[in-house]
Amino acid sequence: MRVRSGVRDAGQVGRQGGRQGRRQDDAIGGAGSSGVASGGAGDGEAGDGDAFRAGHSDASPAGDGAARRTDRTATPLTGPTSIGTGSLGAGGTGRFGAVRAGARARVAGATAIAAAVIGGLLGSTAPVHAAPADPAVGTPDLPGQSDGTGGTGRTVSAGQLPAVWPRPQSMRPGGASVALDGEATIAAAPDADPYALSALRDVLRDAGVRTVHEAAPGQTLPGEGPVFRVGGPDAETALRALRAPARGDLPSGGYRLAVGEVAGRDTVALDGVGPDGLFHAVQTLRQLVVERAKSDGKASSGKAGSDKADTGKELAAAVVRDWPGTPVRGTTEGFFGQPWTREQRLAQLDFMGRTKQNRYLYAPGDDPYRQFRWRDPYPAEQREDFRALAARARANHVTLGWAVSPGQAMCMSSEDDLKALRRKVDAMWALGVRAFQLQFQDVSYSEWHCDADADTFGSGPEAAAKAHAKVADALAAHLAERHPEAPPLSLLPTEYYQDGSTAYREALAAALSDRVEVAWTGVGVVPRTITGGELAEAREVFGHRMVTMDNYPVNDYAQDRIFLGPYTGREPAVAVGSSALLANAMAQPTASRIALFTAADYAWNPRGYRPGASWEAAVDDLSGGNAASRAALHALAGNDASSVLGTDESAYLKPLIEAFWKARADATDSDNRGDDERYTKAAARLRAAFHTMSGAPERLSPGLADEVRPWARQLARYGSAGERAVDMLVAQARGDGSAAWTAQRAVQDLLKKIKKSPVTVGKGVLGPFLDRAMTESDAWTGARSDRSETAPPPEQDARPTSLTVPFGRPRPLTAVTSLTEPSPSAAAVSVEAHVPGEGWRRLGGLSGTGWTQTEARGMKADSIRLAWKDGTTAPSVHSFTPWFADTPAAGLELAHDEIDADTGGTFSVDARIFSRRPADVEGKLTAKAPKGFTVRAPEHVTAPRGGTATARIHVTVPRDAKTGTYEIPVTYGDQKRTLTVRTYPPTTGPDLARGAEATSSGDETSEFPATAATDGDPKTRWSSPAQDDAWLQFTLPRPARLGRLTLSWQDAYAAAYTVRVSSDGVTWRTAATVRDGKGGRETLRMDAQDVRFVRIQGDKRATRFGYSLWSVEAYAVKGPDRPGPPPSRPSGPGGDRPGTPARPAKTGDMPGSGPSAHEAWPGGGR
C-alpha cells in the first residue's frame, strides 16, 4: 500500500501561504416549533423577524438544523493552554382552531479551539454518507422541475396556442390569428357587461391599439382593424361563422370565444352566460395576446396580399368553450395577525379578477368589529375601506363577503341581540358587502354569554347546535326578506373539521334551515388531503350544501414558514361537489398568490388541473415576465414549497444535489476513477443554482421582496453557503488546501447567520446538504467533529505562548494540519514536535492563508504545539491536527457483510475504502473465492484523502453449489473483512399460499380472519390477539420443496418469530428463525423439502398489539423436488443447520441472483 500526496505542493503549503391539540405540527416540522419571533440577524443586517408578528412558545426552531455542528469558532488564546490525553480519551384561539404561537430562536454561542487527533487516539472510522432520499411519491406533475433560468415569454409558433389560466375546459386552434395594430372596433350588445367592456378596452390598449371605435348593433362598422363582437345576436352569428361550439348547457360564468375572419374582416367574438361570463371571456382573451410571429413573407392571418407587419401583437387563433367547475371560487382573508391594508386588498381583488375568482371573504382573525365588538359600527376610515373594496370587487366580478364571529359575546336567545346582528349586517350591506358568513368556531358547549341562554337551550353539544341554528336561521330569514339577491348565508359551525356524525352535528342538521350552507375545512384543521368521499359524508351528516374553506396556504400557525407550493391533495369531486371553495391566504398577500393562483386553476377546472404546470404559471404570473425576477422567485418558491399538503421541498434542486454527490463519488469509484469532468460539470450546475438563490432578494419585485424579506435573506444565505461549500469540496478534490480553507471559513460564518434566523427555508434539503459538505470537508482536513475536543479554559495568571496537544506516548508522526485565521504575522508562529530526550523541534511556520500542512516524516514525538514569542499576537486556532503512521493507512468496509444468493446466480457487493492519511492511499484489493465460486474485484484501488473509494466485487455462485454458508475473505492492505454468502436454490412461481386454507391460534375479531392473509386481497389482513405465542398456519395445495416465504406485515409486526414446516401437520421442524424482525415486507430464504403445512410462530411482539399480516406468499424451489445432499460440514457460522437465525429484509434492499434476487438479504437458514 502506498500513500500518495493529495495536497498541492505538499510539504510546502505550510511555509507558503384554536386549540393546540388540533394543530398539525408536521406542517412546520414537528411539535413545539410552531412559531418564531423577531430577532437580529447579526453583522449589521435587519432582523429576519421584522416582517411578521411574534408570538410565544416553549420551544424554538433550530434553523432547519443546517448548523447542528460542533462550534469551532476561533478565538485568540489568552492564557497557556494544553489539551491533555485525558480529555482526548483512548479510542388562545386560533384561526379555526389553529392557535397563533411564536418562538424566539435561542442560539447558544460558544467559542472553542479544537484539536483533532487522527490515526488511533479516538479510533472511529470514517463515516459513509448516503445519498439524499428519493423524492416522495405524490401528485404527478410536481412543481419545480424547470431550471429556473427565466420566463416563458408570450411568443408562440404558428398553429400553437399560448397557455391560458385557469386552464380552459375546451380550447382548440382556430382559423387565423388577428393582428392588433392602430385601431379596432368594439360592437357590443346593449346589455353587455360594462366591466367586461372596460377590461376589453384595457386589453386592446395594452396590446398597442391606439384607437378603439364603438359601434351599436346593426350600425356600419367604423374605421379599420379587427372588430370585437361582444354579446348578443351579432356575437352569436360571428361565433357560428368561426365554427365555435354551440352554447348548449353552459352554466353561469361560462363563455365562448373565437378568433378568426368573418366576411373578409378580422373578427373576435365573445359571448357569456350569466353576469360573469363575458368578463371571464375577456380574461381569457387577454392571455391570447402574443408577440406577432415572423411570417417569412406570408401574412400572419394567412390572407394573400395582407399588409400586416411582422412586429407588434396579435391574438392567437383560438376557439374556446369554457365554464367554471365550481360555482363560487375565491379567497378568505382569515389569518390571525396583522390584517392586510386597503391597498393590498385592492391589489388582491385585481388578481382575483384576472384568475376568474368570484368570492372574497373578509374574516381577519384580529378584527374586533366582527368578533367581540360585533355590535359596534366600524370607524369611518374602515367604512371607507369597505366602500373602496366593494367598488373594486364589482369591477372584477368578485362578490365581497364578510364573516361575523360573535362567539360567546352574544346572547343567542335575546331578540335585542338578534336585532343588533341584523342591523350590523344591514350596515355592511350598505358598505357594499353582498355575502355573509356566521362563525361559531371554538365556542364552549356549556358556557353562555347570558343566563337566559342556559335556561333556553340547556347545556352540551345539542344545546349549542340549537342555539347556533336559531341565530343562523334568523339571519338567513332577514337576508331573504331584506336582500333577496344575496347569496345563501353560510355557517361555520363549532365542529367544522371533525369526521363523521356527532351529537352536535346531528342536532345542527335537524334544526338548521335548508337555505343555510355549512362550511367545513375537510377532515382536520389543515388536512393533507380532502376526498370526494369525505365531502359526501360531511354533506350527509350536516344535511346541507357544503362550503369548503381550505386552510391553505395560511401560515399563522407556522410563522416561520411561507407556503409557496401548489394546491394539491384535493380530489376533483371536492370542487365539483362544493357550493363554494375558498382558500385561506397567508399574512403575506402577494406571496399568497402563487398558491391562490393554483387553487383558482383547480377550482375552475378540477379535472384538468395539473399542479406542477399551474405552479410554474403562477411563478411566471407573479414575476411579471422578467427573466431575472422569475429565476429568483422560482428559487424562493421552490425552496418554500413543502407543507402539510405534501409538496416536495426544493424539487428542482434535489436532482442537482444528488448528481453532484454521485459525480463526486464516481470520481473515486474503481469503475469510474478519474471521471473528473463529470464532477466539474455537476459542481458548476449546482453552484449556478446556489448563485441564483444568493441573489434572489435583489431580484424580487419590490412589494413581494418586502413581504418575504426574512425568507429571501435566509435563502440568500443558504445560496451563498452552498456556493462556497461547492468551492470548498472542489478545491479539496484538486488538493488546494488554502482555497478550500478560505471557502470553509465563509461557510462557517454563513452557518452562524443561518442558525440565528427564525425562519425556515429549504426544509430537509439545504441544511442537510451543508451538513454533509462540512462533514466531508472535515474528513479531508482531519478536523472531524467526532475526533475533536474543546480546549480547557486558559489560566488567567499567565500569558500564553503556546498551544500544546500531548499524545500520551511517543508515536511516529506523519504530518500536522493547522487551521487558523489568516494573519500576516502567522509565519512567526512555529509548528513544533516534542521528541523524547531531544526536546522541541521546529517543523515549520504557519501560513498566512490560515491553512498549513507541515510534514513530519515519521518523527517519533509525544506531543505537538504551536509556539510564539511573548508579546506577539497569538494565533486564532480552529483546529490543530496530528496524523500518525502507526495506524492502518486505510479503512475497509463492505456494504453488506452477509448475502443470500441463488445457486447459479451472480451478485455484487461494494467495498468501501477510505483514507486515514493526509493524502491519497493506494493499495491492492483481494477477494478469495470459495471452491467453485468466481469472484472478480479491481486489483488496485486508490482512496482519496478525506474520502471513500468504492470498489465493486462481483460474485458468481456455481450451479451445483450446495445449500449452505460460504465465506469470502476481502483484504486491502492490512485490513480484512469477511463476506458471508448463504446459498439457496432459486425459487419460482406461482405463489403457493394464494387461496390456501389458513387457520390461526386465534383471530382478534371476525373482521381479521386467518384466511385474509392468503386470499390475495391487499386490502384484507389477519390480526391476532395481543399474545406473543400467537401463530398463523396455512396448507399448501400439494407437497413442495419450499424455498422462499414473503410476509407483508401491517404496523403490528413480530420482533421475533420462527417458520416451522411439516409434511403431515403433526411432526414439525424449523425452517427459519428471525430474531430481529423489522416489519414491512420481509423475505425469508430456506430449503425445506416435503412441505405441506407452514406455520409462522410468533415469539415476541414488536408492539403492544398482536400480530397482523396483510399477506403471506410461498414459493417453491425451481427444479428437482428434492435437494442434493447437504455439505459434509457447514461452510461457516450457521451452515445448513436447522434454526439458523434469519434477518429478513424489505423488498429491494439487497442485490442477489435468480428470481428472488431483488428480495435477498443476509439471513435465511433452514
UniProtKB/TrEMBL annotation:
The terms under GO molecular function for this entry are: hexosaminidase activity
Q: Where is the composition biased (Gly residues)?
A: 29-44
Question: For this UniProt entry, which residues form the secretion signal?
Answer: none
Q: What is this protein called?
A: Uncharacterized protein
Record-level GO BP terms = carbohydrate derivative metabolic process; carbohydrate metabolic process
Q: Where is this region: Disordered?
A: 1-92, 132-158, 777-809, 981-1025, 1117-1166
Belongs to which family?
Answer: Belongs to the glycosyl hydrolase 84 family.
Q: Which domain of life is it from?
A: Bacteria
Keywords of this protein's UniProt record, alphabetized? Glycosidase, Hydrolase
* F5/8 type C domain boundaries: 983-1117
| GH84 domain span | 327-607
Active-site residues (renumbered): 442
